[in-house]
């Protein structure tokens, strides 16, 4: 993409070198400078009061003939203002700058301003007011962040009038005679876009309180970009106050979210102001250079920055910002030598040093092998200048920089500097000092990197410290594997598998050494791409296998899960209930429910694995009534017996609820499984047993859901499902009214029920609904006893439900000691 026309070098090939004598006599001064250089500096008010030096001889200011020829050719390059053969010779006015250069004035109005001396006062007042506005806006933001909204609102009201005077047309020392912001002088078919822009400028709600809203910025750019083509036909019709207002809104920094296209807007606006001949103030020039760099014109922006050294770089107000911008741009451009000189100029000046400007320089120098030592020196300088004010974030950025470019030794040294108050030098040493060379210290670093999301940096640290003879802890590597797997990307999945299988191989080698055997064949998957191959010395643990098992089960990789389970036996790692649950779930999802049950029996009886609540949740979900869309009556009858067996194992197993999620899901899954299998007597026994052992209390929402049908089919909002929900609610409400009528007949006062009475009501409604669903709504307890006793024996809760043995209930209860279950 070619650079903008205004930034192209002057093309002299199409013009002759002859300049007539009349033109030479009329020219006395040099042409104006580009928009990226500082515009003519005005004398300060204090300087204007000093006695003026005697006028110099006029002949001393007249350039020679060669200079005038060059000036004339540069004047021809001014574009639309360049004279043509048909133009009439006009009088040109020029202004001499303190540097000795000359600038041609645009028109008679500017000549009047320069000759009257009013421009110095006006510009000083505008600059002072603009600085006051920005300081107040920053103060408002700071007060709002600190929670002092009341004082911020009061300050905004006080400053509101002054701000409106400046930006809504009342500008100048006296604040009168300037009217509202408006652009005049346009007509034709494109005038409508200008009128829309004028309507935007006239809004009272624009820039309320001095802080543009995201809507203000968006609408300002919308209207201005639509009117640009029309305005370009006569830029001189746009008042300076309008340019200042547009710049204030479009260059609003915000927090990066309110004005995401800030630099692109500034770049376009600065080019338009250049085309209009409107001089940019110093701060505007800096921002325009930065916008040019960000928008892709890097070399042009750096050239403009170099040309502004005498102006912006020597101005006390812009000195620091100028050199900081230069350091950032030069570092990104790769010119570290010039960036170093700019940083040295800034840090050695009388201005308060901003040592953090060395951070981009450290990154640029650390990228190249030849300058990595300079990067370390820059870091040492920054740390010395910051002293006690250096923050953990500063260290993190330096460490991340060195890790990014594989400067592991420098990164470790920076982390050591952060962790220890005394100096410990590790660079160039083969073996690390004992305070650093241990897996506890390295584990802190890995934990910090993994927590910050720098997973690749964490792996680089693992490989580096292992080369120094340090074996990282399995806990840290398992954390890295888990973080990679949770990221969800294919690349990180491969990295996690590669590292996990390397840890498994280390475990297999350890088992082979322990058995004094050689050449144990690894039956795991081969090394995967994504990480450099290295021999891991950290041995896998049960957590490593669990991470892979969960990932394979979630992704439906049943073959890899079976392979992993086989390697688990070879590695002699005792299987855990988590691994067993993943294997059962994978077999169930793969349509091998019988194999899942067989595996569960084998692992619990032969290998001594203790099941938990998640195990039984997985087993109940493996029933055909929960897996098949089209139910088979024969399989449903088999599920009735299987579900009772699962319930018996669940009651007899030694486990307790570990999470609120399993406490909510397991009772619900058991009731729905028996409901689908049409085991209403077993469902009634399960409800009574879970009340004693689980502290289970049904909610009204669960009762409505059961009365309406399967919850999975009710997720889709259709008219049929809505009718089912309404019918289910009517059923439950009818049973609740019946229960309360019974209470009134028994002498209940009829006032609000206590929490215990509400719980008893819900249990009574659940049992009545089960009997209603089973076709025996009026069955008495005596009539149900034989069926309930049979189901209780099959489910292993005869002593709990029928005999109500307190000791047996206390022995089999599944709640932790002191764990309270809400009644509602």
From TrEMBL:
Q: Which domain of life is it from?
A: Eukaryota
One Pfam assignment: PPR_2
Q: Which InterPro entries match?
A: PPR_P_subfamily, PPR_rpt, TPR-like_helical_dom_sf
Q: Where is this region: Disordered?
A: 35-63
Spans of the PPR repeats are 576-611
The record, for NCBIfam families, names: PPR (TIGR00756)
Q: Which family does it belong to?
A: Belongs to the PPR family. P subfamily.
The protein's matches in PANTHER family, at most eight in alphabetical order, are given as: MITOCHONDRIAL GROUP I INTRON SPLICING FACTOR CCM1 (PTHR46128), MITOCHONDRIAL GROUP I INTRON SPLICING FACTOR DMR1 (PTHR46128:SF329)
Q: What is this protein called?
A: Pentatricopeptide repeat-containing protein
